[in-house]
Design brief:
This protein has 233 residues and is of the alpha+beta class. 19% of the residues lie in helices and 35% in strands. Keywords: Hydrolase.
Length: 233
């Protein structure tokens, strides 16, 4: 931690509930730095009880991912090249929330069909996470999809560049969990989604939420102007 001007109480302990809460700090100034297709960057000057700190903020569209599990408890992953890390990663199907007005669970169903050629008749919310909250507003929701069927006509062609070739891999859920814990796969949606699915299954799936369950984190970043505006209709 840098820039702390006063003494730090090493013995300070939290006495309240352990739950994320909405506590926006006043923004004294905000300077746009970059406007992109998927995200924008701005520099905010934030007031921390009289101490002003400068923070760069990535305003992100947000995204969804789908842990699709078949009747044999196999997880569907796709292999996709990711240029920023120069790696081909095994990931669950998913994509950006870039269609204005489209409900997140409908985005998830569309992405599952487009990237895998499958549809599901049983859907639940599995886990939500903030991908890099120290610098980005990206909120991601991972759905669990079961009762899978291949769509009529097979996987549609909808992509280009790295989305031209998305080979599928079916991996037993226990094996997928081991792949995460041994560091052999590291995409954040795969890590969070696979571990959440493994834990939820071990608990009898009691942690699953309705497909349209509230998404407080995304509601918060939208309400406080932290989300890039969806441009695709």
């Amino acid at each position: 931690m840098r820039g702390h001007s006063g003494p730090l109480d090493a013995d300070e302990e939290w006495a309240g509930d352990v739950v994320d809460t909405v506590e926006p700090r006043p923004v004294i100034d905000s300077i746009p730095r970059f406007e992109g297709r998927i995200w924008s960057i701005r520099t905010d000057t934030v007031d921390f009880a009289g101490h002003h700190a400068v923070r760069d903020v990535q305003q992100h569209l947000g995204a969804v991912a789908v842990i699709a599990i078949d009747d044999d408890d196999r997880v569907l992953l796709i292999r996709q090249y990711r240029h920023p890390v120069a790696m081909a990663l095994f990931e669950p199907p998913g994509g950006l929330l870039d269609v204005a007005g489209e409900a997140p669970h409908l985005t998830a169903a569309r992405e599952l069909a487009e990237e895998s050629g499958y549809e599901a008749s049983t859907w639940h919310v599995l886990v939500d996470f903030l991908n890099s909250p120290g610098g980005s507003s990206e909120a991601i929701r991972v759905y669990l999809a079961r009762d899978l069927q291949p769509i009529s006509g097979g996987r549609p062609y909808t992509g280009e560049a790295e989305e031209l070739h998305l080979p599928r891999a079916w991996v037993d859920l226990d094996e997928a969990k081991d792949l995460v814990l041994t560091g052999r796969i590291g995409s954040p949606t795969a890590v969070c989604g696979i571990l959440a699915a493994w834990a939820s299954k071990a608990g009898g799936w009691l942690s699953l939420r309705p497909v349209d369950a509230p998404w407080p984190a995304r509601d918060t970043v939208i309400a406080h102007d932290r989300v890039n505006v969806a441009r695709r209709d």
